[in-house]
Write a structure and sequence with these properties.
Strand content of chain A: 25-35%
Order of helices and strands of chain A: HHHEEEHHEHEEHHEHEEE
Number of strands of chain A: 10
Distance between the termini of chain A: 61 Å
Oligomer: homodimer
Largest sheet of chain A: 6 strands, antiparallel
Structural class of chain A: alpha+beta
Chain lengths: ~270, ~270
DNA sequence: ACGGATTTGTGCGTATGTATA
DNA sequence: CTATACATACGCACAAATCCG
């Protein structure tokens, strides 16, 4: 052991080669067998190096002839300051979902699958909505997928769960409760507004964590990929927390973006 | 092999026990030797389970007789919508750093160490500032630490790097260039304003990723901890990107928060 | 449809190094 | 200094997934 561990030598070398583009995105790394020969280390040692590369998000692996493949960065972003806050006016008239607009603006085709269930509030959701853990809530889950160009397979990129207190979820307009519908619904002015609720403030929380098992499988995340979590809490004029939209996205594929005007100190005007 | 892998059995059991609080934060997991006995699996198998628990952010490990410890969540947040955007005006008069105010508001004691260097722009920073990769830039790095209560050791929680084009960094006020000073400087109205630059817009980007090696050591991150990255790009009235503040924080310790007022639709179809 | 070849996944046993109390 | 506990490393075997002929 000369200062560094053996697996670190392998790790560093491969890391450099990938960064330099010697192994390009979409390409395969040499199989373990070959690396064992090249470095003269045991398979176990080579494997810890490769495992760390996966954890670092540089490659993903699959048994069989997929081998280890260098990841292709996606880099979609999600404009949280425009979303629901006043932009995308045209889309609401057209009846297009704002997330879709946002994605299409970046040249992707988007799609989402909606499921609605009633379940008791997990710890974190209870905190967001300021209710007791275990309270019955309605969860409206959207699995969001993109592809480019049209025709290739869909890549799941986001898991967007809206949670509502039951009384909110069951509100009706024109005889139906839109929040309970298991399809991609849009309403002029937004669904929430259509059922007579006015949100006056959002509180957004963004954190970085490792995914739960169900998130890993739904988003098809390779082992070791972190996720970002963007929670938007909607608050009405009475200060009640009406809903929370918790979006979980693959850290290597998406990021969240805000645009903020800066309030100028003296006699300046805000650039709304 | 009963459907699941052996290490998964161990993983799931420990995961459950930790979630239920049977192993509380700060407590130690049983040593590997004991788990080998309890489950009747080999040490290697137990180890893969434990490694995954680390990756999942539930425990951290250290060689020696420390063993594996269940993580204690910190949960500090960082109010990005108030930061620099007009709140905390009093502090600027008082000359207190805004990050410090934010942290102290949550009952922590804060401290930061500043270092200034000139270096060529990394890929990502170049993209943020819209300059060529390799351009010489000034980096003002702040390692931010907290502790509670006063007296215990400092916990590094954030790495805040401000990057400036050289001409911006060298601007002077009262004969000194405040951005090049290696100490915790505050100016009424903010440092940037004090050197005659007006930022009119911020663009924030937040992403989740695995830390680079230097970030891991500076933030004392256990293996497998993801980081959040919050980048704030400041844009002046000519549309020039004046600086970027890239903050990297441990995903398990901090999160970013925004408060957004909702634009209300008065007359008809307008916003949501 | 099937079977073989390739490649990663899982698992065992063992030994030695290194950090910490 | 010693005991403990994790980190690294070797070798071996078989299972499971994938692709291709």
């Amino acid at each position: 052991m000369d200062g560094r561990a053996r697996w670190q030598v392998v790790y560093n070398e491969l890391h450099t080669l990938i960064e330099e583009g010697k192994y390009a995105p979409g390409e395969q790394l040499p199989p373990e067998r070959e690396l064992v020969e090249r470095f003269g280390f045991s398979r176990a040692t080579i494997r810890t190096a490769l495992t760390r590369l996966e954890q670092a998000g540089l490659v993903y692996a699959g048994a069989g002839s997929v081998g280890r493949t260098v990841r292709r960065p996606l880099e979609i972003h999600f404009d949280a300051s425009k979303f629901e806050v006043g932009a995308y006016k045209d889309d609401e008239v057209r009846g297009v979902d704002q997330w879709l607009s946002n994605v299409e603006e970046q040249g992707w085709e988007g799609r989402q699958v909606v499921t609605v269930t009633t379940r008791s509030a997990p710890q974190q959701v209870a905190r967001w909505l300021a209710v007791e853990p275990g309270t019955r809530l309605v969860r409206r889950r959207r699995v969001r997928m993109v592809r480019k160009p049209p025709g290739v397979e869909w890549i799941p990129v986001m898991l967007a769960d809206s949670w509502f207190p039951e009384d909110v979820a069951h509100r009706k307009v024109d005889g139906i409760a839109p929040l309970l519908e298991e399809r991609d619904i849009t309403m002029p002015g937004g669904i929430i507004r259509s059922i007579g609720i006015r949100q006056v403030k959002f509180v957004d929380e963004i954190r970085s964590r490792m995914p739960a098992d169900d998130e890993r499988s739904l988003l098809a995340l390779p082992t070791g990929t972190p996720v970002g979590e963007h929670a938007r809490i909607g608050i009405d004029e009475h200060g009640r927390r009406i809903r929370v939209l918790a979006s979980v996205f693959a850290g290597d594929k998406q990021y969240v973006r805000y645009e903020l005007p800066v309030a100028q100190p003296e006699a300046e005007v805000k650039s709304a």
